[in-house]
């Protein structure tokens, strides 16, 4: 799965070095890059179409993730084909799925008891949830608290989103959860690093620290973020946010990503 998530970025890194890369690999990376280019052309329109429809139908929902992640990348085509992810109550979930089916979306994956992922032939994907996909009660309670703080998005009366700090806590907690369940991908570490780098000055560090301690993941969360800076940051940022512990600790962590 990480290959499909990272191949478009690898292709850009290979530009100018084609003579050292086997032809079949160049072709595979190029295909993924072309898919990313196409996705970039349709993603914003598809996302706006869905949110506008839900607003028109007076469906209340909260945006957990969106294609705005592409804005974090210097070259948007390097971003993954990230889905629009929405949380809503069960009644809204049922109506929303019906609307999506009418728009040509088909179920691609079911998250038992929580929600599902739907995909359209164009490649755009949306995930809808009526329950958060975390099995621990502490996680659900804390994440729901963050969602309760969500505010209406500009130009909408029914679509809400989280603040920068709340969204970072949510992303960080999700990354830790995926690490513990052996589902954490390199792409998620990269997106987390890019998000923190872009919003660092606006984040409420005291609030974030408090929430991560409440979740009992503050130490692991800090190490995963440090890995992001160690892998993708420049020399200056690595000195500030990079590893400060015994590197053998990070070797163990990296083996599970």
Q: What would your notes on this structure say?
A:
It contains 10 helices and 7 strands. The chain has a 7-stranded mixed sheet. It is of the alpha/beta class.
Can you summarize this structure?
The chain contains 10 helices and 7 strands. With about 260 residues, the chain is α/β, with parallel strands linked by helices.
SSE inventory with pairings:
Layout: H1 2-14, H2 23-56, E1 61-65, E2 84-87, H3 90-102, E3 106-111, E4 115-119, E5 125-129, H4 137-148, E6 151-152, E7 159-161, H5 164-180, H6 186-199, H7 205-214, H8 218-232, H9 235-241, H10 247-254
- The share of residues in extended strands comes to 5-15%
Computed Rg: 19 Å
Instruction: Please bin the fraction of helical residues.
Output: 55-70%
Number of helices: 10
The succession of helices and strands, N to C, reads HHEEHEEEHEEHHHHHH
The CA-CA distance between the termini, in Å, is 12 Å
Structural class: alpha/beta
What is the mean predicted local confidence, pLDDT? 84
Stretches where pLDDT is under 50 for at least 5 consecutive residues are 1-17
Number of strands: 7
């Amino acid at each position: 799965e990480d290959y499909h998530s990272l191949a478009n970025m690898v292709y850009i890194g290979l530009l100018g070095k084609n003579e050292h890369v086997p032809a079949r690999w160049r072709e595979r990376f190029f295909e993924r890059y072309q898919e990313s280019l196409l996705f970039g052309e349709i993603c914003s329109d598809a996302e706006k179409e869905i949110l506008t429809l839900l607003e028109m139908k007076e469906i209340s929902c909260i945006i957990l993730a969106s294609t705005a992640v592409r804005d974090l990348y210097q070259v948007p085509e390097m971003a993954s084909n990230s889905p629009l992810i929405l949380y809503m109550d069960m009644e809204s979930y049922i109506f929303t799925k019906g609307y999506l089916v009418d728009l040509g979306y088909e179920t691609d994956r079911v998250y038992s008891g929580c929600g599902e992922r739907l995909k359209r032939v164009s490649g755009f994907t949306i995930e809808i949830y009526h329950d958060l996909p975390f099995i621990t009660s502490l996680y659900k309670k804390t994440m729901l608290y963050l969602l309760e703080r969500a505010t209406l998005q500009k130009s909408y009366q029914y679509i809400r989103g989280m603040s920068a700090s709340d969204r970072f806590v949510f992303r960080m907690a999700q990354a830790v959860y995926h690490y513990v369940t052996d589902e954490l991908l390199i792409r998620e570490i990269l997106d987390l690093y890019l998000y923190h780098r872009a919003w660092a000055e606006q984040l409420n560090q005291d609030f974030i620290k408090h929430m991560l301690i409440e979740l009992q993941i503050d130490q692991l969360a800090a190490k995963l973020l440090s890995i992001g800076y160690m892998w993708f940051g420049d020399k200056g940022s690595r000195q500030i946010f990079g590893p400060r512990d015994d590197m053998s600790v990070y070797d163990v962590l990296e083996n599970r990503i």
